[in-house]
Amino acid sequence: MSDDDHQFESKADAGSSKTFPQQAGTIRKGGHIVIKGRPCKVVEVSTSKTGKHGHAKCHFVSIDIFTGKKIEDIVPSSHNCDVPHVTRTDYQLIDISEDGFVSLLTENGNTKDDLRLPTDDSLLTQLKDGFGEGKDLVVSVMSAMGEEQICGLKDIGPR
């Protein structure tokens, strides 16, 4: 069997991971962590002293960055936790469709049409009102672990 009989499948994401490991004792308030498979923002960390038979434990109180639900977890401080790669990208709003999706303009001039309107009522109202008034709006899209959601809005002036 020769070496050129092997075929490799290529992946679009070049095999990059959705998370990276970080020691639990080094994760701080304001950072991110994966708890129960969900990307979360840490709002409180408390560390207990080492017990008679074991490690110091970190108690994490966090908020899911997409659903806003509070999630807690306790992890030995010397163990590794998954930390999500969280990115924010700004896109210009082009259109809001009747089925609840938005059309956004990317940096390279293409359109992105796979995002739903935000679930946050005040953000949704600002977005619809601003668009209805003909304002130029830029939306911030947060993405982590294969999920994306509109999380912010900026008015860059009238069209």
Automatic annotation (TrEMBL):
Pfam families, per the entry: eIF-5a, IF5A-like_N
Signal peptide: none
UniProt KW Protein biosynthesis keyword: yes
Residue ranges crossing the lipid bilayer per the database entry: none
Composition-biased stretches (Basic and acidic residues): 1-12
Region of interest (Disordered), ranges: 1-23
Gene3D superfamilies membership: 2.30.30.30, Nucleic acid-binding proteins (2.40.50.140)
Post-translational modification: eIF-5A seems to be the only eukaryotic protein to have a hypusine residue which is a post-translational modification of a lysine by the addition of a butylamino group.
Keyword Manganese on entry: no
GO biological-process terms attached to the record: positive regulation of translational elongation; positive regulation of translational termination; translational elongation
GO molecular function: ribosome binding; RNA binding; translation elongation factor activity; translation initiation factor activity
Domain Translation initiation factor 5A C-terminal intervals: 85-154
UniProt keyword annotations, A-Z: Hypusine, Initiation factor, Protein biosynthesis
Role, per record: Translation factor that promotes translation elongation and termination, particularly upon ribosome stalling at specific amino acid sequence contexts. Binds between the exit (E) and peptidyl (P) site of the ribosome and promotes rescue of stalled ribosome: specifically required for efficient translation of polyproline-containing peptides as well as other motifs that stall the ribosome. Acts as ribosome quality control (RQC) cofactor by joining the RQC complex to facilitate peptidyl transfer during CAT tailing step.
UniProt-listed NCBIfam families: eIF_5A
Family designation: Belongs to the eIF-5A family.
Protein name: Eukaryotic translation initiation factor 5A
Source species: Zostera marina (Eelgrass)
